[in-house]
């Protein structure tokens, strides 16, 4: 598009913002760029929320998030979401490709994947992967991908 040098500064700022932010993301390419398990990568940000990609394999730690609801969308494979009700009894939900589950804040949960699963997470920026628990699996500052 031609842009006259007389274009108002606001228009130029608008165009720069569009160029910087309006970019498509290929989920499979992003997933192919890392291999670590349980290490979420930030693939996008909007309205104070992060879109993260993560590879699961094995068992994660039990935890909850005090203030954040957390969405898990399965891109490939499947995983089991273990969770506890108010009395502490355990339940499980199998989540497959093309399905998502939202874990409400405060709910104790643990994802488990018998074989590698690729997941898109959608949750407020700053959400800690291990929630209220600090462990070797805690990733304080997820990398961008
Ligand atoms: Ni969680």
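Q: What amino acid sequence fits the structure above?
A:
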């Amino acid at each position: 598009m031609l842009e006259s040098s007389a274009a108002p500064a606001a228009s130029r700022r608008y165009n720069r913002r569009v160029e910087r932010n309006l970019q498509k993301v290929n989920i499979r390419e992003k997933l192919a760029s890392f291999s670590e398990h349980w290490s979420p990568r930030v693939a996008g940000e909007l309205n104070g929320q992060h879109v993260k990609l993560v590879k699961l394999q094995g068992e994660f730690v039990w935890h909850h998030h005090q203030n954040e609801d957390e969405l898990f969308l399965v891109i490939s494979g499947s995983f089991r979401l273990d969770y506890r009700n108010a009395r502490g009894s355990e339940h499980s939900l199998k989540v497959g490709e093309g399905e998502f589950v939202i874990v409400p804040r405060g709910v104790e949960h643990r994802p488990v994947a018998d074989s590698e699963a690729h997941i898109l997470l959608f949750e407020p920026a700053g959400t800690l992967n291990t929630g209220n628990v600090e462990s070797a699996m805690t990733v304080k500052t997820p990398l961008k991908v």
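Q: And what stands out in the fold?
A: Residues 65 and 131 are 5 Å apart (CA to CA).
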